Amino acid sequence: MKTKIITLVMILCALCAFSTFALQIDPGTGTRISDSTLLSPVWSPDGKWIASLGFDGKWWLQLTPSEGGATEKLYTPTPSEGYILGLTKKPCFTPDSQEVVFTYSLIDKNRGTIVNMVNGSGSIINQIPIIMAVNIKSKATRVIREEAENARYSHNGRYFAYVNYDHRAVTDPAHAEHHYSLAVYDTVTKETKYLTDNLGVRTGDFSFSSDDTYLAVYISESNGPPKIYRINLDGSNTEEISSSDNPWKLPFFSTPECSPGGGWIMYTASESTNTTRALLVYDTATKKTTPVFPISTVQNTAGTWSPDGKKFCCSLVLKSTNKGALYTYDFIEKNLGKEPVLQEVAQYIPQGFGTKLININLNAISPSDSSLYQGTKILETNQQFAVWSPDGKWIAVSTPVANMIWIVPAGGGAPINVADFTHNTVYKGYELASFGSPTVTAFTPDSQEIVYNTTIIDESRGTTVTITDEITSTGTRHFGVSVMQPINVIKAVNIYTGAIRLVMDAASWGTFSHNGKYFAYTSSITPKDPVTINILDMETKKSRIFYNGGGQPVCFNKDDSYLVAIAGPGGGYTMLPLGQGGEKKVPQYTTSMSPDDRFVIYGALAGAGVVIRLYDMVLGKTINVLPEGTEFQSWNGSFSPDGKKFCYQLISKVEPSWTRLYVRDFNPAEFSSITSVDIAKPLEFALQGNYPNPFNPSTSIQFSLAKAGKVNLTIYSVAGQKIRELFTNTEMTPGIHHVLWDGRDDLGKPVSSGVYITRLHMGGKALAGRMLLMK
Question: Which uninterrupted H or E stretch holds 171?
Answer without folding.
Answer: helix 168-171
